[in-house]
Amino acid sequence: LRRSADREEQEQVRAQAATSLGSLCAGAPEAARLDVVACLLGVLADERSTGAPVRQGIVLAFGRLVEAGEDPRDQAARVALRAVVEGGERAARGLALLALAEIAGRPSRNDGETTLVAALVPARATEEYLRATLLASKGPLRAWAALALGLHGYALARRGLALEESSRGALARRARGERAAESASALALAAGLAGAGGALATLEERS
Predict the structure, then answer these.
(1) In this structure, are residues 60 and 77 in contact, taking their beta carbons and an 8 Å threshold?
(2) What is the pLDDT of residues 43-67, one digit of tens each?
(3) Pick from 108, 174, 109, 121: which is nearest to 144 by CA?
(4) What is the C-alpha to C-alpha distance for residues 62 and 31, in angstroms, rounded to an integer?
(5) Buried b / exposed e across 5-27, counting CB within 10 Å, b at 16+?
């Protein structure tokens, strides 16, 4: 934690420290997890001394650490990830989309204290955001948004749930209509992960 926040440390070391925190602290006691989230939020906010590698490392850590619950630190981290999507460098924007999907796709440790409908509210909100980003974006960000939405759908399926029909339809339409080969393959893969129809045929057409 100290190395990730140390302005005198090399950027790559700080980035690796942040990413490692995501793996080490994901299952930590709630108070410790939230303390790490708060510290990384502070580092991310210090734009003058936090370069692209560190921001990307923190985004990756948030994907593992942050939960979809109502704690203010979790909420602030999710808001920060959306801010990265809207205004970060290209790689960080894509990673932030994946992090949001990862957070929303897994059960929160507090889900057992609420109803299934209430527990799914954050997941559906993230799904709506990812779908809107998919429909509004172009180029590489569209492919990232599609992969994030597909991974979110796959995570929901493991919980016995599914993406909304509008999301599956958006993925299928984008996969069929994409002209760039690399983006089309990513879109088709995302559609397949989400259970949207026509994904295999699209991949075969591109091979």
Answers:
(1) no
(2) 999 877 788 999 999 999 999 999 9
(3) 174
(4) 16
(5) beeeeeeeebbbbbbbbbeebbe
